[in-house]
Each structure stands twice: as structure tokens, then as C-alpha cells.
Design brief:
- By secondary structure, this protein is α+β, with helices and mostly antiparallel strands.
- 28% of the residues lie in helices and 27% in strands.
- It has three helices and seven strands; from the N terminus they run αβββαββαββ.
- The strands form two sheets. A five-stranded antiparallel sheet has the order 1-2-3-6-7, covered by helices on one side.
- Strand 1 and strand 2 form a beta hairpin.
- Helix 2 crosses helix 3.
- It is globular.
- The chain starts with a helix and ends with a strand.
């Protein structure tokens, strides 16, 4: 079965938080849920999540490129992105595209689930 665009995006996005693996638990038309695994050798290092987005609402492909670059260059500390990211040049896209995808990045909220209740969110900020 082909991997959904949402799952592909989540694998990229959750790298910002040090997630090593995602265990998919459910995928519906309007949401995708699973377990973010931070350390495969430690059963305590897991966080359930749900993201309320349809496959059609998936972020732009450029956002994956931006996230991969942030992770590779270590321009973040977990959910906190370097304040200087707006000043950085990206050879992959122009400045107006960069502004658009940064806004898209800061707009994403993936709900954390603890004991079947939504408690917090994965979201990125300065």
C-alpha cells in the first residue's frame, strides 16, 4: 500500500522533535493518528497523536524541504526554531516562497493524546 502524503509529512515534521519512528494507528478521511516513538528501546519514550487534516489539506511539498533543511542544519531545538531563520537564504526557493512556507510551518498543530484525551500539541515557534 502506498504511504499517504500525511504520513510522509508527519515523518518529516516530527523529526524536529527527535522522533525516530511513527507507528500508525488510524487513518480516516479527516484525520491521521499514531504513536510518535522517540526511542525504540524505551517504551516510555512514546507520544500518541492525532492530526485533523485530510489528505487534500496536506502542507506544500516545499515545507518538507524546509523542515529537512532545518533538521540537517540544526536550526532548531525541539519545537523552537532559530529566530534568525527569516534572515537565512535558501537556494531551494525564493524569499516570498520561504515566507509562505514558514507561515505554513508555524500554523501546524498536531494534537498530543494522553489516556484518550487531547492534552497538548506539537507546534513550532520562535
Amino acid at each position: 500500500m502506498k504511504e499517504s502524503k500525511r504520513l510522509n509529512f508527519l515523518k518529516s515534521y516530527l523529526k524536529l522533535y527527535g522522533v525516530e519512528k511513527i507507528e500508525l494507528t488510524n487513518e480516516t478521511i479527516d484525520s491521521i493518528s499514531g504513536i510518535a516513538i522517540f526511542d525504540e528501546n524505551d517504551a516510555e519514550e512514546r507520544q500518541e497523536f492525532i492530526w485533523y487534516k485530510s489528505e487534500k489539506e496536506n502542507p506544500s511539498p516545499e515545507l518538507n524541504i524546509l523542515i529537512e533543511k532545518i533538521v540537517a542544519e540544526k536550526w532548531h531545538n525541539g519545537d523552537k526554531i532559530s529566530e534568525h531563520i527569516e534572515e537565512l537564504e535558501f537556494e531551494e526557493f525564493d524569499s516570498s516562497t520561504k515566507e509562505k512556507i514558514l507561515a505554513e510551518l508555524f500554523d501546524i498543530r498536531i494534537r498530543m493524546v494522553d489516556d484518550k484525551e487531547e492534552t497538548d500539541s506539537f507546534w513550532v515557534h520562535y
